[in-house]
Amino acid sequence: MKKKIISLLTTSIILTMVLGSSALAVTHPYSSKDHSFSSSWQAADSGTDWVIEYGFDKFLIDEDYAHTLHNSLHHTATVTNANGSYSDDAGAGNWAKVDITHSGATVSYSIQY
Question: Quick one: pLDDT at residue 24?
C-alpha cells in the first residue's frame, strides 16, 4: 500500500513538472495594428471572470500598457514592443499591470490565465 501511494505521488509530481501550469493556460492576444500612436487610446475586452484594458498613453511619456484582472485565477498581463516583452502577474481578484515606454510600430498585449 505504501509503495502504491509513493508511486502515485511520484507520478503526480512528474506530470505536474512536465505539464506545468501551462497545460490549462488560456491566452487572449491583442494588437495595436488598428491604432496609431499619435494620440492616446484605450481598448478593453472581458469574459465571465476576466478583463483586459490595454492601449497607448501620451501622459508625461509615451507608454504602452496592459492591465488585467481575473476574479478566480492567477493571471499574467504582457506587453511586447520593440524594446522587448514585459509582464506582471497577480493572484485572483488582483490587477496585474504593465506600463512600459513606447517603442515600435506595432505592440502586442495579452492576458494569460
Answer: 54
> Residue 35's closest CA among 51, 58, 52?
58
Q: State residue 11 phi and psi, 5-degree precision.
A: -60, -45
pTM above 0.90, yes or no: no
d(CA 88, CA 98) in angstroms, rounded, equals 6
Region at 37 (left for phi over 0; alpha for psi -120 to 50; beta for the rest): alpha
End-to-end CA distance of the chain, in Å?
37
Query: How far apart, in whole angstroms, are the C-alpha atoms of residue 10 and residue 93?
Result: 32
Q: Which amino acid is at 18?
A: V
DSSP 91: -
